[in-house]
Here is the input.
Amino acid sequence: MVSMGNTNEVDAGRITSGIEPDTLRLKIVNFIYQQLPAWRDDPNRPDEQSEVKLNSQLATFLDVQARSSFSMIRFNHEEPQFGSRSVDISSLPSKRMLINAKHYTIYNPVLVIECKRLPSPPPKDREKEYVTGSVPNKKRGGIQRFKLGLHGAKHDLAVMVGYIQGSSAKALHKAVNKWIFELVDKPLGDGNSWSKKEILLQLEEDVKVGVVKYYSNHSRKGKAEGIELYHLWITMKKKLGTA
Here is the structure.
């Protein structure tokens, strides 16, 4: 049960069968998805390429927009995780609330968000970084870190944002799933095991504004329960009629 108080409603979006609904977190997922084009097209936003600067911009934009249209939630840039690691953005309650019989304060993230450039920038050994690092001791992969509990260890649902800076969503989706299939047949040796069921499944797409939403479900090292990931991808240079 989520105690919401008075706030503007945010549509929950279209959820495919088999995904257990979680009202607040899915509202946050859909809020981010809806805001991505407005953030990209904001005339006051500096045109940046760097992942670090894009993450900071997005966190700021989401936090400002939430104040007027989703006031029960705020957004932070950088959230400490396991050890010295941090996740790019977190969503936290704007006041103490009860969610699924657990109390959350303004210091407890409801949702964590990891962001990646697509395709990954050079060098070549970073190519698969949305999914995994290239060697066992350098755990740079986005999905990899969630599976190892380095990110989102206290969560069973999280978000990955993809900044598409080249290629197309269709081609990148195909590539990401290919990398997952490769890990099924040849694990990296980082402690993760992979299944063909962990590929990204498309939920919805808006070709005109250049956004697409995927879903995946992953096992986690040393845990009986897995983690659900919503993948929200935005084409940074909008081209009408393309995806």
Observations:
- Confidence is low (pLDDT under 50) at residues 1-21, 239-243.
- The beta strands are 73-80, 86-93, 97-99, 102-104, 111-118, 157-164, 201-206, 211-220, 223-235.
